Automatic annotation (TrEMBL):
<dbReference type="GO" id="GO:0000976">
    <property type="term" value="F:transcription cis-regulatory region binding"/>
</dbReference>
<keyword id="KW-0804">Transcription</keyword>
<dbReference type="Pfam" id="PF08359">
    <property type="entry name" value="TetR_C_4"/>
</dbReference>
<protein>
    <submittedName>
        <fullName>TetR/AcrR family transcriptional regulator</fullName>
    </submittedName>
</protein>
<keyword id="KW-0238">DNA-binding</keyword>
<dbReference type="GO" id="GO:0003700">
    <property type="term" value="F:DNA-binding transcription factor activity"/>
</dbReference>
<dbReference type="InterPro" id="IPR050109">
    <property type="entry name" value="HTH-type_TetR-like_transc_reg"/>
</dbReference>
<dbReference type="InterPro" id="IPR001647">
    <property type="entry name" value="HTH_TetR"/>
</dbReference>
<keyword id="KW-0805">Transcription regulation</keyword>
<dbReference type="InterPro" id="IPR013570">
    <property type="entry name" value="Tscrpt_reg_YsiA_C"/>
</dbReference>
<dbReference type="Pfam" id="PF00440">
    <property type="entry name" value="TetR_N"/>
</dbReference>
<dbReference type="InterPro" id="IPR009057">
    <property type="entry name" value="Homeodomain-like_sf"/>
</dbReference>
<dbReference type="InterPro" id="IPR036271">
    <property type="entry name" value="Tet_transcr_reg_TetR-rel_C_sf"/>
</dbReference>
<feature type="DNA-binding region" description="H-T-H motif">
    <location>
        <begin position="35"/>
        <end position="54"/>
    </location>
</feature>
<feature type="domain" description="HTH tetR-type">
    <location>
        <begin position="12"/>
        <end position="72"/>
    </location>
</feature>
<dbReference type="InterPro" id="IPR023772">
    <property type="entry name" value="DNA-bd_HTH_TetR-type_CS"/>
</dbReference>
Amino acid sequence: MANMTSRQEKAIETKKRILRTALALFSEKGFDRVSVDEIVRKSEASKGAFYGHFTSKYDIFLEKFKEIDQFYSAFQESLPESLSAEQKIRKLAIAQMEYLRDEMGRDGIRSLYAYALTPSVDNYLSDTERPLYAILETMISEGQQSGELTSSLKPGRLALLLSRSMRGTLYDWAIFGGDFDLADEIDSALELLFHGIRQ
C-alpha cells in the first residue's frame, strides 16, 4: 500500500467507517430496519461515497465475507500439523460458528441467507472458489492420503458435503432462532458425517 495518495487513504478509511457503522447498525436494529440513508448519516459519509464503495447495503455482507475468508486462511495456518484431518476440520468448523455468531449475529446471518436466495444475485456464499472450500479440500486430501478418511468420494465432493452441513447449522440457528450452541451443534453434525467417511 506504499505510495498511496492522501485521497486514496481517505477513500479506504471512509469505506472502513461505512462498513463498521453498517454492521453495528445491523446488529443493533436488524438488517431490514436500517436504511442506506441512516448508514450514511451515522458514518458521516456522503451517499455518493457509499455508492462509490457498495452497490447496496447487501454488499456490506460481501465485504464481511471477504474478511471471513481471511479469517479461514489465517486459522488454517495456525493449526498444528500434528492434528489429524478430522481434528483440523472440526476445529475449523467450530471456529467458523463462533466467528460468525460473534461477528455477524443471528440477524446478520438471517439477512445474508435471505439475500442469497434472491435469484438475480451472484451468490458469493456458495462460491466453491472461496478459501473455505479449498481449505476443506486440502484437509480432506491429507486425510485420504494418510488413510484416515475414505477415498470413495473425491475431496471436492466431501468438501461440498461438509460445507453444506456448516451452512445448514447456521441456517437453523438463524432462521429458527435455535436455542442451541453453534459449536456443539456443528460438532455433533460432523461426528455423524465423519462416522460415514472414516476408514
